[in-house]
Design a protein that fits this description.
Distance between the termini: 67 Å
Radius of gyration: 27 Å
Number of domains: 2
Strand order of the largest sheet: 4-3-2-1-5
Order of helices and strands: HHHHHEHHEEEE
Helix content: 40-55%
Shape: elongated
Strand content: 5-15%
Number of helices: 7
Structural class: alpha+beta
Number of strands: 5
Length: about 240
């Protein structure tokens, strides 16, 4: 008569080990959040010919972009996590092998492939959230572009000494800045990144090629800086 080996009793985890597991999960979640934010920022600012390194974006901004990404794909992410947990639980509660040879074979496979599978899973998670960040940035850019970038606040700038390079970008740039015809893309690292957005009342006045690239103005050249509130109906969904 074939006798099945008894399943070994698992000892309860010690508080220190449990705290370590929680810390690892929090660190992994934070890293995934910032990875999603990095992918979002990299793709979003690439639409305006800007590099995220040169802008000196503060770390909290990446967390915000990551939150936007996760919020936009929350149900998909929750479903993926639920499926991973379900598969893990099924594998943990599979019947014990029918003989010692199968038990040894299963243990050998797990010890050999376990670290590889874990590494592959972690890399897949980072690659997935990075791609979701880029996808979210593309969708938000398409939506904002269709609305003339009215989600970005207009800004009035009076420059201390308007450099000649501004006139080379667009004629009358300094005058347009003072009249609030540019929109603030981001204020970071002592610079203002601005784009020439379309007017909400007349969105066809400005061709697409004049909305990019962004105009970067150092704060040291700004004498007056005023934000114009976003009009009703132009805020994010």
């Amino acid at each position: 008569m074939l006798r099945l080996p008894e399943r070994p009793m698992t000892e309860p985890r010690r508080p220190a080990a449990l705290l370590f597991d929680i810390a690892v999960l929090l660190a992994l979640g934070t890293a995934l959040l910032f990875t999603a934010g990095w992918g979002y920022a990299e793709r979003w600012f690439a639409w305006f010919d800007l590099g995220i390194i040169s802008l000196g974006i503060p770390p909290p901004y990446f967390a915000m972009y990551g939150y936007w990404t996760l919020a936009a794909h929350g149900w998909w992410l929750l479903l993926s996590v639920a499926m991973i947990i379900a598969v893990w639980q099924v594998l943990r509660h599979l019947p014990v092998a029918w003989n010692d040879r199968l038990v040894r074979l299963r243990q050998a496979l797990l010890s050999a492939l376990g670290p590889v599978l874990l590494l592959a899973l972690v890399l897949f998670l980072f690659w997935s959230v990075y791609g979701l960040g880029r996808l979210t940035a593309d969708r938000n850019h398409a939506r904002a572009s269709a609305d003339g970038f009215c989600v970005l606040p207009e800004v009035r700038l009076v420059l201390k000494d308007p450099p000649s390079s501004l006139s080379n970008v667009l004629p009358g740039t300094a005058k347009d800045l003072a009249e609030g015809r540019w929109r603030l893309l981001i204020r970071s690292g002592g610079v203002l990144a601005l784009i020439r957005g379309q007017s909400v009342d007349a969105p066809d006045q400005l061709p697409d090629q004049l909305r990019r690239p962004a105009l970067v103005v150092p704060m040291s050249q700004v004498a007056l800086f005023e934000l114009i509130p976003v009009p009703p109906g132009c805020g994010p969904d």
